[in-house]
Amino acid sequence: MRGDAFLGRIQRSCYFIAFILCSCGPSPRPQPDLNHYQFKETRDLVGFVNEAAEIFSEKGKAAFIEFGKKESKWFSGTKYIFIYNLSGDCIFHPVLKELIGKNLWGLMDINGKPIGQFIHNIAANSKKPYGWIHYLWAEPGEIFPSWKNAYIMGVKGPDGKTYAIGSGTYNIRTEIQFVTDVVDSATKLIQSLGKEAYVHLLDKASLFCFNDTYIFVITPGGQLLVDPSFPTNINRNVLGFKDYSGHLIIREMLERLKKKDVVYIPYMWPAPGQANPMKKIIYARKVLSGTDTVIVGSSLYLMEPIWKKF
Question: Is the CA virtual torsion 94, 96, 97, 101 positive or negative?
Answer without folding.
Answer: negative
